[in-house]
Design brief:
With 289 residues, this protein is of the alpha/beta class. It has 11 helices and 11 strands. Strand 4 (92-96), helix 4 and strand 5 form a beta-alpha-beta unit.
């Protein structure tokens, strides 16, 4: 690879290697990407049913955290993309990678006409069950049958870093939006405190994360695919100490996981499950077609 996938400049270098994958860096815009990408078979093993589901022994607590985070996301979106006339003419909203449907439930409760895309059969079934209608379909945006200009708003959270071709993905998003439609993105950020602190040991460096953005590279990509009025926001999530600990047990980080294990053992049960609003490792972005 001699050119950046985002800005097209040939000022790229090998950053580091983890497992048998290379992380390449563009010195011009800061975009990073995995090379070579894992094949479909390897990704299918990673994206097993357990990858998406909460711990079966504590699912209600995890569901509550995800629903609270979804509420934060919707509040942020409403401040930018909602008006009184939307109560008369509900905005159409598509979530790509909607998981268990938490954000769609919040959006539906606030008057949006919602649709969802998900790649896992079980999650499609669960999301539709929770939403009370068949508004979530199995598939990807690249292969979907939605009409051009079908949606006022398209959202995707912790998704774009997983797609093989972010430019093609965002171009398709733009195509499905109405004139002046909005896109709302949350993705891990190379500008985050955790990325700067942890360097190549950042917990977001995973085999299934194929692309890594900072604000400059994400802005470049959005402009390249037909977006403007690009606004960045801190990415807050509702988490608890136990959830954070279990995340780092699953995605082990040298030095940090053992430390969190000690913290978890010393934390009283009630405090370990107390919801906390935290700045996460990502960035939130809202842009207009």
């Amino acid at each position: 690879m001699t050119e950046c996938l985002v800005c097209g400049q040939n000022n790229v270098k090998l950053g580091f290697v983890f497992r048998h994958y290379e992380v390449w860096i563009c010195n011009h815009c800061g975009f990073q990407w995995l090379q070579p990408q894992p094949n479909d078979e390897e990704l299918a093993k990673i994206y097993s049913e357990d990858y998406f589901l909460a711990d079966k022994n504590d699912s209600e607590t995890v569901y509550a955290l995800k629903r609270s985070t979804a509420h934060l996301y919707l509040d942020q979106l409403l401040k930018i993309a909602h008006s009184k006339k939307d109560e008369i003419h509900p905005k159409s909203l598509l979530e790509i990678g909607c998981g268990m449907g938490d954000f769609l439930i919040e959006a539906q409760a606030n008057g949006f006409k919602v649709s969802g895309l998900e790649v896992t059969d079980y999650l499609v079934q669960l999301a539709n069950q929770r939403l009370g209608s068949e508004c979530v379909e199995k598939g990807s945006i690249e292969t979907s049958n939605y009409e051009t200009g079908a949606f006022d708003i398209i959202v995707f959270f912790d998704v774009i870093e997983h797609v093989r071709n972010p430019e093609l993905f965002l171009s398709k998003v733009n195509e499905l939006l109405k004139a002046s439609g909005k896109v709302y993105i949350v993705t891990p950020s190379l500008d985050s405190w955790s990325a700067r602190l942890m360097g190549k040991y950042w917990m977001e460096y995973k085999v299934e994360h194929l692309s890594y953005f900072n604000q400059a590279s994400l802005r470049n990509l959005l402009k390249k695919t037909g977006f403007h009025n690009i606004m960045f926001f801190p990415n807050y999530k509702i988490l608890n100490i136990d959830y954070i600990y279990r995340h780092f047990v699953r995605f082990h980080v040298k030095g940090l996981t053992p430390l969190l294990s000690v913290v978890r053992k010393l934390t009283p049960h009630k405090l370990a499950y107390m919801p906390i609003r935290l700045i996460a490792s990502g960035v939130a972005v809202i842009a207009e077609k």
